[in-house]
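Hello,

Our lab assistant flagged a job as stuck in the queue for most of the afternoon. It eventually completed. Since we weren't sure the result was trustworthy after the delay, we are filing this so someone can double-check. Below is the sequence as submitted and the structure that was eventually returned. Let us know if re-running is recommended.
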Amino acid sequence: MRNDFMMAINQVCHERQLPVDIVLEAVEVALASAYKRNFGANQSVTAQIDSKSGEPLIFIEKIVVEKVENDKREIPLKQARVINPKAEIGDMVSVESTPSNFGRIAAQTAKQVILQRIREAERDALYNSYAEREGEIVSGTVHKVASHQVTLSLGKAE
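-- returned structure --
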């Protein structure tokens, strides 16, 4: 299934002519948002996707303390040193915290965020392709003429 996930991301990149890293970033932001919405809004969350396996991973930033009072935000020094041997009290440590049922929940919650980010990336890519051609004469088809506006079709742009 994880390879299907990466195949879907690669297909979106190919169809919409977007770089893989832009789409992966959009998916990671969406996954972090989905985690916050479903598992804890007051945590510092980041998501990463293994580009080879497609495995989504959630990391929570926790403060290293001597005695834990809030286990959602704090981690004991002994446990922090397993993750980072140089950890000291007061440091921040990223703790992997991916729930077992996260894939299904994340897919439902992240869909809108992913689509929005992909549309933004498409718009930016389209703008950049025409911004480079500023001052050039281009040919297009007139679609609509309004009082002070003319709508042209320039291939992908309108």
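-- support follow-up --
The delay was a queue issue, not a problem with the job. The result is valid. The longest strand covers residues 56-65. The chain has a mean pLDDT of 82.
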